[in-house]
Amino acid sequence: MTVGELVDRLSACDRNAPARLAINPFFPMAHRLGEVIATVDEGGNPVVFIAEAKDAEQLGYLPPDVAVALSWQPPAEAPSRRRRGVSGPNGGQ
Q1: 60, 30 in Cβ contact below 8 A?
Q2: C-alpha angle with apex 24: 29 to 69, nearest 5 degrees?
């Protein structure tokens, strides 16, 4: 993703909404964004890094809908409800 693509995607969002960083698909957590650093890579090409906040505090688990949208976990459906059998003498009667 380029900076322009990121700006385009962010421009559709509420400007006052807090920005979060989704980390680790195997243990999905949310983190605060920190610094944005523009530099060059090994080939001299421009690259931008978005860092985790200096306090590095995990804000909690990533909301399930976000993890699903990132394809980090499959959609979860509620288990089907089956009528429970009755127990006891004479089938509970």
Answers
A1: yes
A2: 75
Strands 20-23 vs 58-61: parallel, antiparallel or unpaired? unpaired
Q: CA 62 to CA 27: how far, in whole Å? A: 9
What distance in Å separates the CA atoms of residue 63 and residue 29, rounded to the nearest whole number?
8
For residues 76, 72, 6 and 47, what is the CA-based torsion angle, rounded to 10 degrees? Answer: 170
Distance, in Å, from the CA atom of 19 to the CA atom of 57, rounded to the nearest integer, reads: 14
What's the average model confidence in pLDDT over 76-93? Answer: 67
Tell me the average pLDDT across 62-86.
79
Question: Do 58 and 29 contact (CB within 8 A), yes or no?
Answer: yes
Q: Strands 46-52, 29-40: parallel, antiparallel or unpaired by DSSP?
A: antiparallel
Separation of alpha carbons 29 and 46, rounded Å: 29
